[in-house]
Amino acid sequence: MRELRNKTAVVTGGANGIGSGICHALAQEGSQIVVADLDGQAAEALASELRRQGARALGLSVDVADLGSVQALADAVVAEFGGVDVVCNNAGVFIGGSIRELTPDDWRWVMSVNVDGVFHGCKVFAPLLLARGAGHIVNTASVGGFLSNPEAAVYATSKFAVVAFSEALRGDLAPMGVGVSILCPGAVRTRLAKSDVHRPRALGDAGNHSEILWDHIKDGIEPGQVGEIVVRGIKADVPYIFTHPDEWKPAFEERFASVLACFGKV
Ligand SMILES: NC(=O)c1ccc[n+]([C@@H]2O[C@H](COP(=O)([O-])OP(=O)(O)OC[C@H]3O[C@@H](n4cnc5c(N)ncnc54)[C@H](O)[C@@H]3O)[C@@H](O)[C@H]2O)c1
């Protein structure tokens, strides 16, 4: 999608961090913005800020882990804007810690948001894009979607899943005019290290497993920079959108070299 003016964009996890950076950048392009977040008040606060800046914007509450909630979001977007052109499945949570301390509820929580959430967004919104015969989906993974780490095994697993699903989706939807990009940020200074606050009570005690991330992201880039990179990625229809190419490329080269080195080894 080379032209984003007057297009309708939905951004989940849009109220804070990277999502808010994407909302601002798309609004700057002239898109109509739906800020969708578990925190409906924060979503509406950002939408009203965007309206003050001249954009058409709506803030809505959604729990991406719940298919019915995502369907209700889509219904509200269609009622307000008549359809949708850009969908950023960006809501996500972080959990760190070794497998020795992580619980089945930790696993369920992260998968329900990071993996089910992306699937729900694609399942519900892709038909709306296909109905227009055009559009773009951006699914937020991470550099952790390619590089696993003993301190973040569950998070990395969820992001590997986002990469695999999105690669398949790109092949599926491209012939019908819909692009798919996978956003793979490095460190971005956001509230991700406070993810525990979003954990449903039914999934047990959070145990502050998210906080260990702060040391890794406190000196990260600002979400606004990511938003601008995402806009360029949508316009260029690139499969992967990297925010820190110089910093992370060597680690990717090392990873793929170590995989290739095992072919024929035994
Ligand atoms: N910050 C980083 O360094 C970094 C790096 C790589 C990937 N990411 C990914 O970027 C995405 C955005 O994270 P961020 O860093 O901006 O964090 P953030 O915590 O600042 O923002 C995440 C937003 O998602 C919302 N959210 C949480 N659970 C939700 C749910 N069930 N339904 C709907 N909304 C929900 C939160 O309310 C919050 O507004 C995540 O997918 C994260 O994994 C972040």
Structure description:
47% of the residues lie in helices and 14% in strands. Helix 1 packs across helix 7 (223-236), helix 3 (67-81) packs parallel to helix 4 (104-132) and helix 4 (104-132) packs parallel to helix 5 (153-173). It is built from 8 helices and 7 strands. It has a 7-stranded parallel beta sheet, with helices on both faces. The chain is globular, with a radius of gyration of 18 Å. It is of the alpha/beta class and 266 residues long. The protein has a single domain, classed as Rossmann fold, CATH 3.40.50.720. The chain has helices at 17-28, 40-52, 67-81, 104-132, 153-173, 214-217, 223-236, 245-260; strands spanning 8-12, 32-37, 57-61, 86-89, 135-140, 178-184, 240-242. Bound molecules: nicotinamide-adenine-dinucleotide. Residues 12-13, 15-19, 37-39, 62-65, 90-94, 113, 140, 142, 185, 187-188, 190-192, 195, 198, 217, 220 line the site of nicotinamide-adenine-dinucleotide (NAD). Residues 12-13, 15-19, 37-39, 62-65, 90-94, 113, 140, 142, 185, 187-188, 190-192, 195, 198, 217, 220 line the site of nicotinamide-adenine-dinucleotide.
